[in-house]
Amino acid sequence: MAAKRVLISIDERLLERIDEAADRLGMTRSAFLAQSAARDLDSRVGPGADPRVRASLAALDRLISDSRR
Q1: Which residues 6+ apart lie within 8 Å of 22 measured at CB?
Q2: pLDDT number for residue 65
């Protein structure tokens, strides 16, 4: 995949922390930010991933369905 150059604004202290972490890992700033963003985006799951939430939503669906009868 082709890389694209972007211009972003980041708090100075946060940028220092990013640079320190990237350095500790032997990575470039760009690689660290890309990896961090990908990890964060890949780990996000909606509330429907929780079986308790799915059960609650199913119960609500039943209540709504029953109330329409």
Answers
A1: 28, 29, 31, 32
A2: 87
Counting Cα atoms < 13 Å in the Cβ hemisphere of 43 gives 6
> Mind listing the pLDDT tens digit for each residue in 13-51?
999 999 999 999 999 999 999 999 998 887 767 767 788
**Rounded CA separation 35/38 (Å):** 5
Q: How far apart are CA 33 and CA 62, in angstroms?
A: 44
Q: Which of 8, 36, 7, 11 is nearest to 21 (CA)?
A: 36
**Are 5 and 13 within 8 A, CB to CB?**
no
d(CA 23, CA 33): 12
